[in-house]
User: Fold these one by one.
Assistant:
Number 1:
Amino acid sequence: MIEVIVIDLLNLSKGTQIRIATCEEAVQRYCELMETEEGRLSFPPIIVYRDSDGEYWIADGHHRIKAAIRRKLNTIVAEVREGSRADALWESVRANAKNGIMLTKADLHNAMVMLVKHTQKSNVAIAELIGFSDMTIKRYRDSISGSTNVEPDKTEKPEKSRRVGKDGKSYPSTTKKTSPPKAEPPRPEPAAKSPVSPPVAARKPEPPKPIPAPPAAPAPKPVEPQVEKPNRERELRVELREHVVPKFPRFQELRRIVGEAGYQRFVNDLFGI
């Protein structure tokens, strides 16, 4: 479903961002295109997933969102899908691997780490998505199988002993659990002789230092009365909106998609009203 989403409602944390660093060049280029109404309509809707708690997880469009925030926009057009953080993360890796800015080796490694930790996909499915071998995924999964520092995904309650394959079916996990090595009993250490310290001569107390007086506070500046000025700028923006909007039929198409309320918010944000 296509909706106009308030940007403040989006989860802007790195919960679904697989890139190690943001491409500043892309954000600046998108920001320049968003300066005009025609440029903003040229962008496809971002993709977000709405979970059962009503939280929006970003799947595709992190750079466009940063550009919109830099343009001080309050809303953005989005395709809203129902799903969890894991669904948004899987779609984020899929979308970034096939289009948009090219992923680096560090980005792909970070994607592997996040998919293993926060989804129940199989080694073969993850390897096929990011272009790694399934043995690479297995070695990394085995290396963290005994770790207790993995952050749990609070948005899902997956089974601990099963994983989902690329065909969408659930299979038992084959990861072997390794038991930690037994700790050796501590060996007794020989008692050390305590050295005898020489006596320390008592120091004479120093006289107290004088406390300097605080500097005098500056005199307050006189407050000049503010005279209200007519809001001519807003009147000019309203006149500009009434003059420009009828010339672009895509405004009417946007009104049919997002509804009257969403359309009014978008147009008012566009002209700064």
Number 2:
Amino acid sequence: MLPTATPLAPTMRTLRPCTPTRTGIAATGALGTRRLSDRGCTLPAMTIAHSPRTVLDAPDHAALATFYAQLLGWEADVEDDEWAEARSADGHKIAFQQVDGYVPPTWPGQEHPQQMHIDVSVADLDVAEAAVLAIGATKHAHQPGTSFRVFLDPAGHPFCLCEE
């Protein structure tokens, strides 16, 4: 078993150990092959990590997981009083961590920069706009384009609905 990492900062959650899902498969990269664990799983030698997860800070981690689960047609899973995830049936995840004293980003201003945002594709901007407003999003006053629309999730993170 791989060791659990220590927290990187007081507000960062301890990382969980990686659990490979494929065993006995050798993968070779430009730098050769290396063994990931005693389970027979291998990754290309140039691979340092895998299975990235997007984690958003939130004033209410459970509510934000529920919002994104509704937006994407996924399931919300509240693991404890600090961590929740929105998960797809095929394994995609967005995680949310509880942060006391959370301050939402300002956009397009930089007083509290957004640092990242999520874009999702939609077939019809008008239909999708009505749906995200119904589950708790707010349309941002600043709309810089015509093929996408900017909204704020319930915690104030910007996200965009983008035409397919």
